[in-house]
Write a structure and sequence with these properties.
The complex is a heterodimer of chains A (251) and B (486). Chain A has 7 helices and 12 strands. Chain A has 251 residues and is α/β, with parallel strands linked by helices. Chain A has one domain: Rossmann fold. In chain A, strand 11 and strand 12 form a beta hairpin. Chain A is globular. The termini of chain A are far apart. Chain B has 486 residues and is of the alpha/beta class. Chain B has one domain. Chain B is built from 11 helices and 22 strands. In chain B, the strands form 3 sheets. Chain B has a 10-stranded mixed beta sheet. In chain B, a hairpin with a 2-residue loop joins strand 3 and strand 4. The two termini of chain B are 12 Å apart. The chains are: A alpha/beta (251), B alpha/beta (486). At the A-B interface, helix 2, strand 7 and helix 3 of A face helix 1, helix 9 and helix 10 of B.
Chain lengths: 251, 486
Amino acid sequence: MNKNIPILEIQNLKVSINDNEILKNLNLVVNKGEIHAIMGTNGSGKSTLSKVIAGHPSYSVLDGDIIYNGKSILNLEPEERSHLGIFLAFQYPIEIPGVSNEDFLYLSYNSKLQSEGKEEIGPIEFFSIISEKLKIVEMSDNFLSRNVNEGFSGGEKKRNEIVQMLLLDSKLSILDETDSGLDIDALKIISKGIGTFMNNEKAIILITHYQRLLEYVKPNFIHVMQNGKIIKTGTAELAKELEEKGYEWLK
Amino acid sequence: MINKSNKVLNKNITKLVNEPYKYGFATEIEKESFSKGLNEDVIRSISQKKNEPKFLLDFRLKAYKKWKTMKCPEWAQLRFFENNYQDIIYYSAPKSTEKLNSLEEVDPEILKTFEKLGISLTEQKRLTNVAVDAVFDSVSIATTFKEELAQYGVIFCSISEAVKNYPNLIKKYLGTVVPIGDNYFTALNSAVFTDGSFCYIPENTKCPLELSTYFRINEQNSGQFERTLIVAEKNSQVSYLEGCTAPKYDENQLHAAVVELVALDNANIKYSTVQNWYSGDNKGKGGIFNFVTKRGLCAGKNSKISWTQVETGSSITWKYPSCTLVGDDSKGEFYSVALTNNFQQTDTGSKMIHVGKNTKSRIVSKGISAGNSKNTYRGHVAINKKAAGARNYSQCDSLLVGNSSNANTFPFIYVNNSTGKIEHEASTSKIGEEQVFYFLQRGISLEKAIELIISGFCREVFTELPLEFSVEADKLLSLKLEGSIG
């Protein structure tokens, strides 16, 4: 049983960017096997939190700590955090002209193997691995030969993020508004992807504005962020209440 | 929000880009140099030194007279102090070269130099499918595979040798594609050129080897003025590659070359350049001033000339490899990657002059600017009155690295025949912090990320390089860019 084995502990985290304090004494514990949803108004610090966990170089941590599997990761580079199993699905996935999805994913996968001291795999073996993942989110193989996110529709970009999550088989996955801009079919496909991926060893943080996604992916906890802090924590019921009453009700 | 982190990232990328210049060493040799300065006597001495026939001395003197009436062009997007032409050495050669009969007699220091540069002149270690002409300051040191090529009737030698052994060919073609007075630097080159390569491919012959010239500037105050002439007779084919390096000196050195290509009916010339002259230090001090005129004449029907260049060096580059498409159905191509970093300035591009019917041209230019550098594409596409059915396609893409670099595109298009078709596409993009963070988050290292972004950007051009060199070019670019994103 993995009950109450924390994968992520955020302690009194204070974060600023260009001398603006965005996160103020934020505390959060996520255990293995749990799905947490973080909701809140625009500018409440949700995306900042996700980027700070992934190690984005723009933010400075003023105080507090981020503990991952029992160790502080504050001094680790973004790629080292990735190698440890931290994954961020971007709110706005980046376009990379001239670089094929296949090359990108192949390099990403082999970088991870290398960091684990394993032997890198060849392109043919890789192709069979990635094909399987593509099937889960219902994307065709020809998507591999297209350039990374270039000319992708909003839905394709988000699915591409999920494919990468499946491929890297990350332990802590943060999905930053992966549901926004998706039609209901795409939402179902992505939810199915998350469903097959999740297990007792993993944890997921969903950042979202809407309760919609939470109908398909059931979170264990819902947190409401405001002004760089978590101001309320509850169960799935809280999301429904928020949907009806809005965030004002919490003030 | 990007300022602070940009510093971190910029630092990393700058480290990456600023890999020390590997070819910056100088060779200590006994040499024979003229004293600084330029006048008619200097030109006569050069000509005498080389035992040139009278027609060539006349050619030089005519050019000198013309040059004196001309001014350094100012239209390019380049800022620099004009050279003091009286402060340059116009002839410098290793002393022992005068009576060389074989490679064994070449100064071992020079052989070592070329070996250090990765160009082995000793026949045993030669590249198996590339013949090399090695030019050291003002003279050609050695040409490999001469006898093997001669069996096919292919002439590949230094231009000085060609003047002696094939004066009629030189007389027939020299200065026909690039006239003496074409521009300031061609006039200067025509007056003082010291060496370079000559290739002649006879009718119905496909040159069995890649031909290659390696240029090395060693002497501190000398200029290098080389002259290359390639003539491809009917139904012949040749692929030629040039490479260039120079030691690191604090002062700017001048390189003003002229390259002329002539392609007759159905001939095909492919000319590739990997230019890595010393580009100056990270404060913009030193480096080569590279003023080059390269032009190909598709004289024959259905002939083809293709330029591919990878420009990574020089503090200043001024260069527009061009094609004059005279023969009906002839084709001109230009593929270019120009990378600038620190305080490098590049104004480069191509000219395609359509004269014959159904002539086609294609321009693909990729500019990458990092640091405080300035990267300009300048194109000139003209469809003349009689060029019915002519077509041009141009594509210019710029990639910016960091926040202080600069990219410009100036396409000039002239159409005088209503049946002509011209397409022009351009794009500008930036390697941004978010792009790099995306790679890092997926576990890919910064070096790999830059490499992938750059090679993705340049792919179309690299595939045009001869195989042996495309891998090298890829490496060269990532070396040059090590350390520069933001």
